[in-house]
Every structure is written in C-alpha cells, then in structure tokens.
From TrEMBL:
Organism: Noviherbaspirillum humi
InterPro entries given in the database record: AtuA-like_ferredoxin_dom
Name of this chain's protein: AtuA-like ferredoxin-fold domain-containing protein
Boundaries of every AtuA-like ferredoxin-fold domain copy: 1-99
Superkingdom field: Bacteria
Length: 102
C-alpha cells in the first residue's frame, strides 16, 4: 500500500535542510510507520534530491515520525533555482512510498 493510505505529512525547512513529519491517521497504524518508514528508506526514496544524511526521530505519543533531511534543498531558499526551494512538495512525494499492508 502507499503510505498516504494510512498517514499524512507536513514539511518545514531551514536553509538547506528539509524537515518532514509523517503522522498516522489512526494510532493503530503507527507501528507500521515505525517498522517500515526508516531513515534509510526515506534517503533511498529521495535519491538524487537529498545529498546528505537523513535522521529519523520517533514521536510515538503523537503517532508520528519526523525526518531531518540534510543537504536536501539545492542550497536553500535563497540559493536554489528549484521550483520548490522550500521543499514542501517533498512531504507529498514521501506519501508515495510503498509499505507492506501488515
């Protein structure tokens, strides 16, 4: 299934760092997120975009995961020629990640 079937996402940025949060619609789905949405998978999903480290922070009380993507915005808002220099579309793109149904 696609991640968007069980979660929504939010994004933020600072300089050349994008910050993505994935939040389960239902707390019962949080264990699926925790098991299958790893920093490694997120880095692989954004191959060619994210040049630096991806760090994951688990927020079980919120049913969410937060990912910090370093060197992800082609230099950042004031330096990038990218159409989405803020990286807001990265949160939507992350929701196309495929994960097992169970």
């Amino acid at each position: 299934m696609l991640l968007r079937e069980i979660a929504h996402a939010r994004a933020g940025d600072k300089g050349n760092i994008s910050n993505l949060s994935v939040i389960a619609f239902d707390p019962r789905h949080y264990p699926l997120l925790e098991r299958h949405v790893t920093a490694e998978r997120v880095k692989q999903h954004f191959a060619g975009i994210v040049q630096g480290e991806v760090v994951r922070h688990a927020l079980p009380g919120l049913g969410a995961l937060n990912f910090v993507l370093h060197d992800a915005l082609a230099g950042g808002v004031t330096r990038s020629l990218a159409l989405d220099a803020h990286g807001k579309t990265l949160s939507s793109a992350l929701l196309s990640l495929e994960i097992p149904d169970a």
